[in-house]
Design goal:
Blueprint (H helix, E strand, L loop, with lengths): L4 H6 L7 H7 L9 H14 L1 E5 L11 E4 L8 E7 L5 E8 L5 E7 L1 E2 L8 E2 L13 E10 L5 E7 L13 E3 L6 E3 L5 E6 L10 E8 L8 E13 L30 H13 L3 H17 L4
Antiparallel strand pairs: 1-14, 2-5, 3-4, 4-14, 5-13, 6-7, 8-12, 8-14, 9-10, 9-11, 9-13
Length: 298
């Protein structure tokens, strides 16, 4: 995830690169090296979770696309760069409701067709979902503006049962209809996934609300943050770590937040080999090989 390891080791808060980190370790490429310990912690943390939303533009998210549930209704606005007390940003939702209206958003996957630079939304027509087997829960933080907001939360369900590659399951918050009354204070919610079939999930997260459930509100406002799947054991999928510490979106240098330089990650792979963590090294080299095979322009 974050490659500001020098900040963790040396207490410097400015953005630092992987190369600086590994060079600071000198010849000591063992688990006793502060730099190696930091990198191991970052890799292990990433291997234990899959991110739906953490910060605006976070490159580690699996579900990059947004699909509105009711195109005919009044569209809610989702500001995904609103300030957050838990990281850099959170999602702020504003929806001026009309009588009997309902709406919401799904966080889904997309597909880049040949020559396209904007992903096409996928609703189960293609195999773009993720295998999340091994996840035991999906957690997220939420709060309402007034504490009276009634929202339904769930994951899965994309494509119903008719799309060729429809989601393998759908699970609602609390195991019932998924509706919850939000508190004006931040609260973490958990969707239990221990009994779910997670072999193909194209909708990583969704929320829906209706005017009848919120009749005393003219405008629905609430916040979301840290939408994350959690695993009991590490998953050794292809992996890059970011080259810089993330910065607030108001900082002119924030464009570097999701850079994962090949040089930096190559050094990471070398460091993992030399320190004896071959499985972690393979995650990085698998990611490099995948990019070489899949990149349409390089």
């Amino acid at each position: 995830m974050i490659f500001a390891a020098v900040a963790a080791v040396a207490g410097n808060c400015s953005p630092k690169r992987t190369g600086s980190l590994l060079q600071s370790a000198g010849e000591e490429m063992t688990d006793h090296s502060p730099a190696i310990r930091y990198l191991l912690e970052e890799i292990r943390e990433e291997n234990m979770k899959r991110v739906v939303y953490r910060d605006f533009g976070d490159g580690s998210t699996l579900y990059t696309q947004r699909a509105i549930l009711n195109p005919e209704g009044v569209h809610p606005e989702m500001d995904e760069a609103s300030p957050s007390p838990y990281g850099i940003t959170c999602i702020h939702v504003t929806w001026p409701m009309e009588a009997l209206d309902w709406n919401g958003f799904m966080f889904i996957t997309g597909r880049l067709a040949g020559g396209s630079i904007i992903p096409e939304l996928d609703f189960g027509d293609r195999r773009t979902g993720f295998d999340l087997r091994g996840a035991v829960k999906l957690t997220f933080k939420a709060r309402g503006k007034t504490g009276r907001e009634r929202i339904k939360f769930y994951m899965g369900g994309l494509g119903g049962t008719v799309a060729p590659y429809h989601d393998s399951d759908q699970v609602f918050l609390s195991g019932g209809d998924g509706f919850v009354t939000l508190s004006p204070e931040w609260k973490e919610y958990t969707i239990d996934l221990r009994q779910a079939d997670l072999s193909n999930i194209g909708c990583g997260f969704a929320w829906v609300a209706s005017q009848p459930e919120n009749m005393d509100l003219h405008t629905l406002e609430f916040d979301l943050d840290d939408i994350v799947y959690h695993f009991e054991t590490e998953r050794h999928d292809p992996l890059f770590l970011r080259s810089y510490a993330p910065l607030p979106v108001s900082d002119e240098r924030s464009f570097i937040n999701n850079f994962a330089y090949i040089y930096d990650n190559a050094l990471l792979a070398i460091a993992m080999v030399k320190s004896g963590h071959l499985a972690y090294a393979q995650q990085v080299t698998d990611a490099l090989a995948y990019c070489v095979m899949q990149d349409r322009y390089y």
